[in-house]
Every structure is written in structure tokens, then in C-alpha cells.
Amino acid sequence: MRYAPAILLGRVARTLARWRKPGGGSAVPGLVVNTIAPGFLPRTLNSFPGGLVIVTGSAGKSTTTKMLVAALRAHGVSVFTNQSTANISQGLTSALLEEVSLTGRIAGDIAVLEMDEGHGALISPTLTPRVVVLTNVMVDQIDRFHDSDMVAAMLAKIAARATGSVVLNADDLYLSRLAEGIAPGVTIARYGVTEDVLAQNPRGLGYTLTSPARLDAADGMVLTQVSGRDATVLVDGRVHEVGLPARGTHYAVDALTALAAARSTLLDRFDAAVAVTAISAIPPVFGRGEVVSVRGTTVEFVLVQNPASMQLNVDSLDPTTEQILVAVGSDVRDPSYLWPADTSSLGRVLIASGSKAQDIALQLAYDGVVVERIEPDLGRALDDFLALPEPSTGVKTIIFSADSMRRTRAHLGLATNESDPS
């Protein structure tokens, strides 16, 4: 009961935060609890009978986590997870407050948590995860993580705490090197993609690739083909068809990561067919390929968070898409951050918007994309974009950064937090 006062205060803070900002403030109660009871988070996370599973890396964490949770639940496992995708320490604590009892216990067999690389490295010395899942290493969030070596070092610190297994991308050079430092007795489970899949993505998958011999170490988990929202995976020699929540090879790799993680978590209980069926049924993860109906029209949301995701999402966009709005907000602090992405395939963008409208419009123009209008006022841009006649092909498509995603959803009256039921 020693954490009961902190839990009660956290819940009061949660109520006040939601009252002040509906759909937001998810980190506030966690910040309160972590300040007055710093031992609450590690103690609770380490208390699940089936252990703790951490999913971390530069990109793909949210989608992989959601897929993994679906696969485990399909096997009858009771799973606690941070469904709001709040993946820093205060966000994780806020997620726990949703279900924890006053005695600091949560009903569930296992915890599966998406975890930010930086915050994960900070709290990892207090955690004893049974499984650590590593997605990739990219040049991401350069205002926080200055280079890939820094990201790899943080992931290595998290992986070093694994007691059962480390699941990693065999294609990623940094992760392959990281595997050499895993403690004896901890299983290393690898997954990879075929040369055919790489050939479908001549610009790469966003991370530094290993040598062509990488599949020799893929441990029977291989992505063999991707076509739109469908993929083919090879699991222990058997072919499975997987439905994806959104277009793109990166989502197929997320599905493969989730399958490899499910096998390492379930061990002998793992049934690939059951896991594939569950993964194929999940909807897009909050803003990542979501197709919604607003104001009588259908809109697709495409979230870009770094140059690699910008490139992969632009490349996977239907070339017949007629109406595109690109909105970049204050989360992109360096105006040159997204410039490594080649946006030329967009061809024509109706509106460039967000607080960095001028910056993204300049990038698009240098890539030869025709930008018909620059409108920094995102609300006005959205209203005008949605009021346009329906496109003759495809659907209205909004490509946005995280800040613009939140502002777009708020303006359109949609949930601004995945756990918000409104």
C-alpha cells in the first residue's frame, strides 16, 4: 500500500488534466507519480507473472507493439500495454494508472510496452524485461539523438537488461553489431527480408543494411513479398499471407517483427497461423495510414516522423492520388530535417500548411513538386481542402508531422489521443 497516496494523487491529476484539455495531458499524471514515488514505475512493470516485453527502436514501435499485443491476446494471453502510444517514462506511468489497484498491482499475465529509446535507456537499470524487441536504428529526432551511434548505444543499454531473449532486425547493421554484446544465456532471435523485397525499395528501408548474407541468421522469420496492404512471410519454412494496416514495406517489416517477438514471448505456445490472423485484423495505428470519414468525405492520414518514414510513405503512396495536403508543424525544429527525403513522386500538392508551411513548400519545390498554395493557417487549409470536390481517383490525402497530426485531429473533432474514447 506504500504507493496508494501517489496513485490517488496521480488519478486526481489525470482528472484535472482531462478536464482542462480533453483528449490531452496524458503525461501529466505520470509526471506527478514519478516525482513523488520514483519506484512505482519499475516495481509495477517488473511484477507481471509472465514478465515484461519492451519494444523499442527508431521507427515502427507503435505498430509493432499493437501487432504483438493482438498476436498474444489471440493466444489467450492477458496483456497490459500502453495503448495511447505514450512511450516516455511519465506516459508509461500514466498508462499504468489507468488499471493499477491501490496496492500497485495490475491484472494481467504480461506487460508489452512501446518504449522511447532515450527514456528506456534511462530507466533500464531498474527493469528486468524478459524480452526486448529492437526494430531499427535511424537518424531520428536529431534535436535529441545526434547520430545513429548514440541511438544504438541506448538500445544496447536496454537490450542488456533482457533475461530471456532479444529480438532484432537482422538487416540492420547497427543491431547486428549490438547482438555481439548480448549476455551469454540470452537468446538472440533475428528476422529479415529477401533480396526481392529490397529490390522493391531501391531507396532502402531507412536503416543501414548488413551484408547480403544476413538471411543466414534470420532464424526462420523472413519477409518475402509486399504488395500494397498485403505481404507474404516465411515462418519456419511455411508461407503465410499477412494483411497490413497500411501500405508500405515498413508496415510489413513491423508485422514480421511482431511475429518474431510473439514467438520469443510464447515459446512452445506460439502458433504462426493464429498470430498472422490476429495481426491481419488490426486497424491502422493512430494516424499511420488511417482512412477516416469527415464532413462527408473520405480522407487518408499519413504520419511522417523522420526522413526515412517520409521517404517510405511517399514511395508507397498510390501514384494516382490527386488531392494531397502536406502539413509540417513545430515538432520539425530544423527546416532541413526532412530534406534527405525525395518527394518528387508526389508531383503535385494542393496545399502546404502548418507552422513550417514555407519550409516544406520550399523542399517540395526543389524536388520539382508543384505546390498550388501555401497556407500556414492549418485550420483554414483543412477547411478549404475538405471543401474541394471529390477526386476522380483515390481519396483526399493528408501527409503530416506529429504536431500537425494532433492539430488536424483537434480541428476536425477527432480523438487526439489513441486512448481517448471521444
From TrEMBL:
It catalyses: beta-D-GlcNAc-(1->4)-Mur2Ac(oyl-L-Ala-gamma-D-Glu-L-Lys-D-Ala-D-Ala)-di-trans,octa-cis-undecaprenyl diphosphate + ATP = beta-D-GlcNAc-(1->4)-Mur2Ac(oyl-L-Ala-gamma-D-O-P-Glu-L-Lys-D-Ala-D-Ala)-di-trans,octa-cis-undecaprenyl diphosphate + ADP; beta-D-GlcNAc-(1->4)-Mur2Ac(oyl-L-Ala-gamma-D-O-P-Glu-L-Lys-D-Ala-D-Ala)-di-trans,octa-cis-undecaprenyl diphosphate + NH4(+) = beta-D-GlcNAc-(1->4)-Mur2Ac(oyl-L-Ala-D-isoglutaminyl-L-Lys-D-Ala-D-Ala)-di-trans,octa-cis-undecaprenyl diphosphate + phosphate + H(+); beta-D-GlcNAc-(1->4)-Mur2Ac(oyl-L-Ala-gamma-D-Glu-L-Lys-D-Ala-D-Ala)-di-trans,octa-cis-undecaprenyl diphosphate + L-glutamine + ATP + H2O = beta-D-GlcNAc-(1->4)-Mur2Ac(oyl-L-Ala-D-isoglutaminyl-L-Lys-D-Ala-D-Ala)-di-trans,octa-cis-undecaprenyl diphosphate + L-glutamate + ADP + phosphate + H(+). One of its GO terms (biological process) is peptidoglycan biosynthetic process. Pathway: Cell wall biogenesis; peptidoglycan biosynthesis. Residues 55-262 form the Mur ligase central domain. GO terms for molecular function: acid-amino acid ligase activity; ATP binding; carbon-nitrogen ligase activity on lipid II; metal ion binding. InterPro entries: Lipid_II_synth_MurT, Mur-like_cat_sf, Mur_ligase_cen, MurT_C. Its EC number is 6.3.5.13. Pfam families: Mur_ligase_M, MurT_C. Keywords: ATP-binding, Cell shape, Cell wall biogenesis/degradation, Ligase, Metal-binding, Nucleotide-binding, Peptidoglycan synthesis. Residues 303-384 form the Lipid II isoglutaminyl synthase (glutamine-hydrolyzing) subunit MurT C-terminal domain. The lipid II isoglutaminyl synthase complex catalyzes the formation of alpha-D-isoglutamine in the cell wall lipid II stem peptide. The MurT subunit catalyzes the ATP-dependent amidation of D-glutamate residue of lipid II, converting it to an isoglutamine residue. Belongs to the MurCDEF family. MurT subfamily. Forms a heterodimer with GatD. This is Lipid II isoglutaminyl synthase (glutamine-hydrolyzing) subunit MurT. It comes from Cryobacterium arcticum.
